[in-house]
Please model this.
Amino acid sequence: MSEDIGIDLGTTTIIAYNKGKGIVLREPTVVSIDKNTNNIIAYGKEAHKMLGRNPSNIEVIKPLNNGVISNFTITSKMLKYFIKKILGKKFIPPRLMICVPSQITEVEKRAVLDAANSVGAKKVYLIEEPVAAAIGAGIDISKPSGNLVIDIGGGTTDIAVISIGGSVVSTSIKVAGNKFDESIIKYVKKKYKTLIGERTAENIKTTIGCAYPREETKTIKVIGRNLDSGLPTEIELNDSEILKILLPDALKIVDAVKSTIEKAPPELVEDISDKGIYMTGGGSMLYGIDKLIQESIGINVMIAQDAISCVAIGTGKALDNLDALDTKSLIK
Model:
């Protein structure tokens, strides 16, 4: 009997759900390679530790960009490594359900399917991220009733109106967690003439970042490299200045939500107005982004429990309900 594994193959993190066991893997989507031999040195957490600290002979690669595969060979090897890690020595070809952005192209879908099939999977299925997120959040999507889900990941924000097991209308934009980090890096470089890395930017975002004014002022001290002297320098940032930097990106997500609602049938919009909007994904944890969307659109917004794992959980559970889903699949 084959194993069932649901995989949230994210730009930043890969999360896997194994039926009967729950979340069995949570690793950064990062691989490090020895440039001299072209051999892979480390995957996931071990490779992530090298990010920004690697010597010239070691390259740290993120094989996914904006939710899609940018390096097929590395992604295939990474998937194979993690699936073997999940299944252990007794490798039985698993059934895989992998989530993809809602506006992914046919070429990009084929790349995901080929990478998954290279692992030796028994069957491979694809599911749109918002649909998986809805299932993981405990929403009954089988009924003829509208549900609006916003999944803010690392590379993309996926928004969909879901009814009767599938997306009625959907939108995917390349504004999400990584874009927030990039905006912080650019701001610190321009305002303070200081260069900081991705990990520092993410720490700033999670500690004092916000998309809506905080009730109390928060500050953080970080160390970067001064661009004039080339030496380490400490700077102090506060939540108000980070809000100004992140708000334009957050408002792009608001606009995408509005656009998705405008394209939905009136009956489903009425359902959404009654039930509210569900948010999932790591990006939904940015302070105040739920308040910003709620205030801008006028519909109640709820962040799902265990928002970061919702997509992986829903992807795994979807394998038990294939008949009820409008899921594009391919059998090896």
